């Protein structure tokens, strides 16, 4: 496969672009998150846009090509269809409610093992971790919800010092141990709930090999074409376990090679797509959020991003990803939402920051993409950028 064929297929597998007349993008918000396996959710507003742009919305009871709204994603969280937690790589993700426990049990233990040195630096031993998790369980049992400060106050009352980075470490550790997860926001503040109470009956990890196969199917179906190294990066699995998962997935995945002769996998439907060539100018323009799976979901991002521009996406190499402007599969710039003003307090206008000047048709398409973003926010059409 050429670079262009890879990016076009990824746009389809990630449900950023869905062929006209296709039903592959249906099923709602939880189905989109389940399809991808997990969605990076370190930046909460960005994560909601990442999910919504892949989910056809509805207006007045009828399906529409507009994305789902911010409010719809919030409802899916409040209705316990998707869950925000720390299931993998030590960072926040959205997962489908039915996947919250087994994915965390499969992937989080390796992260926990890798934090042992940091735990010692913070002066946290196994007894204090266990005590903190008991405190959280007591504070939340019976449907309780607490903000982060409320959780820290509970720790202090329970004899566990939350100062410095200890409180954050104990929250993330409790989530990785399957004790807590995020609940709905209380205003602008996230809340925490007990995982067992929030998604009772969520399947546990019963068969590790079956779970590896299921995760491999999710990743390569939702991100393919991708390599084994990409899967290892995304999941945090060892190469041995990642390979076991791919082998166990078997015929559910199709294999191909890229122009560097590396093995790649994807869904058979994406592999068989006849329209992998790039569209004409003005089509295929997308405003993707910070940390979007389209870029972050791969170890090797060169198919979509010229390595010479990587520092513009992650300035200073500090791990903070900017929103990306994608044109026909390639990252061609960044973008930012214009600040609200007194006369336009809820503006959804965006400012594109292309690496090079855009063709007129593509610049016009950015305006159309900005209107989709405005529809997500619930502000209607945005003014031209």
Strand order in space, largest sheet: 11-12-13-14
Number of helices: 17
N/C terminus separation = 35 Å
Number of strands: 14
Major β-sheet, in short?
A: 4 strands, antiparallel
What proportion strand?
15-25%
Percentage of helical residues? 40-55%
Q: What does the radius of gyration come to?
A: 21 Å
Mean pLDDT over the full residue set: 91
Q: What structural category characterises the helix and strand content?
A: alpha+beta
Q: What is the 3D form?
A: globular
Low-confidence stretches: 380-385
Task: Describe this protein's structure.
This protein is α+β, with helices and mostly antiparallel strands and 385 residues long. Among the domains are: 208-271, Arc Repressor Mutant, subunit A (Orthogonal Bundle); 285-377, no CATH class. The chain is built from 17 helices and 14 strands. It has helices at residues 3-13, 28-36, 44-52, 70-78, 100-114, 116-121, 126-140, 148-157, 166-176, 195-198, 208-223, 228-235, 239-249, 268-271, 293-296, 310-313, 360-377; strands spanning 39-40, 56-59, 62-67, 82-88, 91-96, 146-147, 180-182, 191-194, 254-257, 263-266, 285-288, 324-327, 330-337, 350-354. The strands form 5 sheets. It has a 4-stranded antiparallel sheet, with helices on one face. A 3-stranded antiparallel sheet has the order 1-5-4. A hairpin with an 8-residue loop joins strand 7 (180-182) and strand 8 (191-194).
């Amino acid at each position: 496969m050429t670079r262009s064929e890879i990016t076009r297929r990824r746009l389809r597998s990630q449900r950023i672009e869905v062929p006209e007349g296709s039903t592959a993008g249906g099923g709602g918000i939880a189905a989109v998150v389940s399809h991808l396996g997990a969605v990076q959710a370190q930046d909460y507003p960005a994560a909601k846009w990442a999910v919504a742009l892949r989910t056809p919305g509805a207006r007045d009871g009828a399906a529409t090509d507009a994305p789902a709204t911010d409010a719809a994603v919030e409802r899916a969280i409040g209705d316990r269809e998707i869950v925000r937690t720390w299931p993998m790589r030590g960072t926040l993700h959205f997962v489908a409610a039915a996947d919250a426990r087994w994915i965390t049990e499969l992937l989080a233990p390796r992260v926990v093992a890798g934090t042992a040195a940091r735990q010692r630096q913070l002066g946290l031993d196994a007894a204090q971790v266990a005590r903190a998790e008991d405190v959280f369980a007591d504070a939340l049992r019976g449907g309780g919800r607490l903000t982060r400060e409320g959780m820290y106050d509970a720790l202090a009352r329970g004899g566990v010092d939350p100062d410095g980075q200890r409180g954050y470490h104990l929250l993330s550790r409790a989530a990785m141990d399957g004790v807590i997860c995020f609940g709905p926001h209380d205003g602008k503040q996230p809340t925490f709930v007990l995982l067992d109470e929030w998604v009772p009956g969520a399947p546990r990890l019963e068969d590790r090999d079956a779970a590896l196969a299921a995760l491999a199917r999710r990743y390569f179906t939702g991100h393919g074409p991708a390599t084994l190294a990409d899967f290892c990066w995304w999941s945090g699995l060892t190469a041995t376990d990642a390979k076991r998962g791919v082998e166990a997935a078997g015929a559910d995945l199709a294999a191909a090679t890229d122009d560097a002769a590396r093995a790649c996998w994807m869904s058979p439907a994406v592999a068989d797509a006849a329209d992998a060539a790039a569209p004409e100018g003005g089509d295929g323009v997308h405003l993707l959020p910070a940390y979007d799976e389209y870029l972050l979901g791969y170890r090797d991002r060169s198919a979509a991003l010229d390595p010479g521009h990587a520092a513009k996406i992650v300035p200073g190499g500090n791990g903070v990803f900017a929103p990306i402007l994608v044109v026909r599969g390639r990252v061609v710039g960044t973008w930012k939402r214009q600040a609200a003003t007194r006369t336009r307090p809820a503006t959804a206008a965006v400012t594109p920051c292309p690496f090079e000047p855009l063709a007129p048709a593509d610049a016009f398409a950015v305006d159309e993409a900005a209107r989709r973003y405005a529809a997500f926010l619930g502000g209607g059409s945005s003014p031209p950028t």
